[in-house]
Design brief:
Number of helices: 0
Strand order of the largest sheet: 8-7-6-3-9
Strand content: 35-45%
Largest sheet: 5 strands, antiparallel
Number of strands: 9
Order of helices and strands: EEEEEEEEE
Structural class: mainly beta
Length: 101
Amino acid sequence: MLDGPIERPDPRTSPIRGDLAHIGLAGIYFVPHFAVPQPRAVMPGGAPLRADPKDDAEELCVLMEGDSFEVLDITGNWAWGCLGLEGPVGYIAIDRLEVMG
């Protein structure tokens, strides 16, 4: 049953954008595409998680070496994703991530 519009979650704590969301949110939100996260490890030295895909964007937090970052989308030199369904969510420079294995 549809009950009308729902409030959009905070984009810094929920991995959802207008075009894409984490597969874990399927059935809760409607977006054109859902992505299965691709886990990547944060490289030695850590990395800032940014609000937008640019070097001077607001720093939301610093991810620690070895953290598992769930990549949902890659645009240019930036990966958009999260640490989990509850966030944090943002952009990290792709050269600061490595394939987990």
